Please model this.
Amino acid sequence: MAARGPAEPIPAATGARLHVRLAAVPLTVDAVRALVADPGAGATVVMVGSTREATGAELTAALHYEAHEPLARRLLEGILAAAAAAHGLAAAAVEHRLGRVAVGEVSIVVAVAAAHRRAAFAAAEWIVDEVKRTVPIWKCDEAPDGSRRWAHPGDLRAVVAGEVR
Amino acid sequence: MPQPATPLESAAASEAGPTVVVELFAGIAAAAGCRRVAIPWTAGDVGALRRALERRYPALAPLLARSAFAHGDRYATDDERLAPGATVAVIPPVSGG
Model:
């Protein structure tokens, strides 16, 4: 039996416009914002994630991202659809980088458009939380000396098992 | 890229009988030194495959225990049956964003 993964069920179409992209080339924040432009929107929230120079005492030169692309795309579509249904969004978009992302470069852009700001803020935050919790994308931290370390925090087996219904 | 570019572990080509092909990613691929591995397979579920991988890569057992599996574009639970010839992926804890 096929398991139902996190972020399912995908709700019925709400009429919201949704956009998902995994890209090995630099992301353009304005382009993602433009994708959610909507005459019904009074508020647009754009969350931009980028490679941070330091985490505590650990220095980072770049992050390298990789994904299980078919599963990641399907889950991202489900997350946007769920957010649109829950928050009445007019449009939602997410783009995530793959490959090497140097310090200061953009790794993720989430953009949502809603009638009012509270829904837009809440939806954007929920989408980012879900991406970090369930979507099969991984980062490898490249230190200034060239050494690399993959980040595998937490217990994904438990997350998935807890959501199979 | 962070992993070796080896497309297929030598064992995959040399397995004579039925197998399942397991795709590896990120820290699992880096530690195993390959991106795909063939596991001899007649019948069983994802849990049995999990145990077979732990036997093949004992050093990876702690990470495998925190990893999920995907079959096609869906997460699979440990009780999902796998037929010989199936391709599945090990999905270690995620760190996107």
